[in-house]
Write a structure and sequence with these properties.
Elements lengths: L1 E6 L3 H16 L3 E3 L8 E6 L4 H17 L4 E6 L7 H5 L12 H6 L3 E4 L1 E2 L10 H5 L3 E2 L2 H13 L4 E5 L7 E2 L2 E2 H9 L9 E4 L9 H9 L6 E7 L3 H7 L5 H15 L4 E8 L6 H12 L3 E2 L7 E2 L3 E8 L17 H26 L3 E6 L4 E4 L4 E3 L9 E5 L1
Parallel strand pairs: 1-2, 1-3, 3-4, 5-8, 8-11, 12-13, 13-16
Antiparallel strand pairs: 6-7, 9-10, 14-15, 17-18, 17-20, 18-19
Helix pairs in contact: 7-8, 8-10, 11-12
The protein binds iron/sulfur cluster.
Length: 394
């Protein structure tokens, strides 16, 4: 079969598509980048984190069905009616088969390693658990074997991803153990590094910082699914933490991993009932205004977020939040996103400037540029090989 893939959404979706492409190639299917009239099947891996994201996926699916009537369009990922791929593609080999990385390597410079799926959270705005089901983790030994495959196939950066990564648990070990084991993998004498996907505050703790502190080849970049920094809003969202806990984690992280640690956050603006005061609390928390990092206020935290994904709240039918009163006008939601993004752009520039004159290490991508460990993008030195890790003065 000739199979094309269209992927929306997060790194987890990306990792799943790359895995399936490698399996399909190993099974002798022809994996193509774009569908054509000769294509037998198109796998669309969708995202429903917002209403708009779902609409975009459904538009694409309708377009593909109209444009390629002979191709079987298969929906996967976080979409209603997502189909079981293996049944449709039929001849996908068993998980033990060595995946064929050729297509993989031709199309990605960093390896996306899916280690966990599903979520036990019940966040009031979120529809993901309805699509992804309860939490489950890839076996510890399978994950290490896959990572060795990636290293043996020339990858130097492995991005660890999951639906709720911090819930990883296998063979009695959690995410910190996995991060340490991945960092300690040896692939002849070629170095590699590990980057963490987004983690849920309140679940990631000091043990994760222990693992990061002990391994210099774990990128100094922590991206938190924060959503808000106002305890009143966090409670309405049914998030399992208070902002004081997050402040303490961030302050420990900066103290232990150093001032070059890049903190990132996902934030929802305009959640039902979010007041101007709540929004200001989130804004100042992200900006690193000295923040009480202990209940008795004896310790203040000094950190700021140099990376931000801000989203306007989006009603998802079937979620508790969609039934909530105190809806915030869309214009206000968008304005709050605009304000946070402007602040974040200024902080990102300041963070980048602070790296000036210092040694950075990037993973070189197709366009001759790449991300540093702190997730700042730099052009690669001339002649740097794609997928390699190169160090130079910023
Ligand atoms: S932790 Fe909450 S926001 Fe994240 S996937 Fe689970 S339910 Fe959704």
């Amino acid at each position: 079969m000739t199979i094309a893939f269209v992927t929306f959404g997060c790194r987890l979706n990306r990792a799943e598509t790359l895995d399936l492409q490698a399996k399909c190639a190993a099974a002798g299917h022809e994996v193509v980048a774009e569908p054509t009239a000769e294509t037998d099947a198109v796998v669309v891996r969708g995202c429903s984190v917002t209403a708009r994201a779902q609409r975009d996926c459904e538009k694409k699916i309708a377009h593909l069905r109209a444009r390629f009537p002979n191709a079987r369009v298969i929906t996967a990922g976080c979409l209603p009616n997502a189909q079981k791929i293996d049944d449709l593609l039929g001849t996908v080999p068993n998980p033990g088969t060595v995946p064929d990385f050729e297509f993989h390597a031709a199309n990605t410079s960093r390896a996306y390693l899916k280690v966990q799926d599903g979520c036990s959270g019940r966040c009031a705005f979120c529809i993901v658990p309805q699509f992804r089901g309860p939490p489950r983790s890839e076996p510890f030994s399978t994950v290490l074997a896959r990572a060795r495959d990636f290293l043996a196939n020339g990858y130097r950066e492995i991005v660890v991803t999951g639906c709720n990564l911090a819930l990883y648990r296998s063979e009695g070990r959690g995410l910190p153990d996995l991060v340490s084991a991945l960092a300690e993998l040896r692939n002849s004498d070629v170095s590699h590094r590990i980057r963490l996907g987004s983690v849920e505050p309140g679940i990631c703790d000091a043990a994760l910082l222990d693992a990061m502190e002990a391994h210099q080849n774990v990128c100094r970049h922590v991206h938190l699914s924060l959503q808000s920094a106002a305890d009143r809003v966090l409670a309405r969202m049914n998030r399992p933490y208070k902002i004081g806990q997050v402040a303490a984690f961030c302050s420990d992280a900066v103290r232990r991993l150093g001032p070059r640690l890049a903190l990132g956050a996902d934030v929802i603006c305009g959640f039902p009932g979010e007041t101007e005061e709540d929004f200001s609390a989130t804004r100042s928390f992200l900006g690193g205004i000295r923040f009480p990092a202990s209940n008795d206020g004896s310790r203040t935290a000094d950190f700021s977020f140099s990376h931000l994904h801000a989203f306007p709240y989006s009603e998802r039918p079937g979620t508790p939040a969609a039934e909530m009163a105190d809806s915030i006008p869309r214009a206000v939601r968008l304005e709050r996103v605009r304000i946070l993004e402007k602040d974040a752009a200024e902080r990102a520039e300041a963070f980048r400037a602070r790296l000036g004159g210092q040694e950075v290490e990037i993973c070189v991508e197709r366009d001759g540029a790449g991300y540093s460990g702190e997730y700042v993008r730099f052009p690669a030195p001339p002649g740097a090989e794609r997928r390699s890790l190169v160090r130079f003065k910023a």
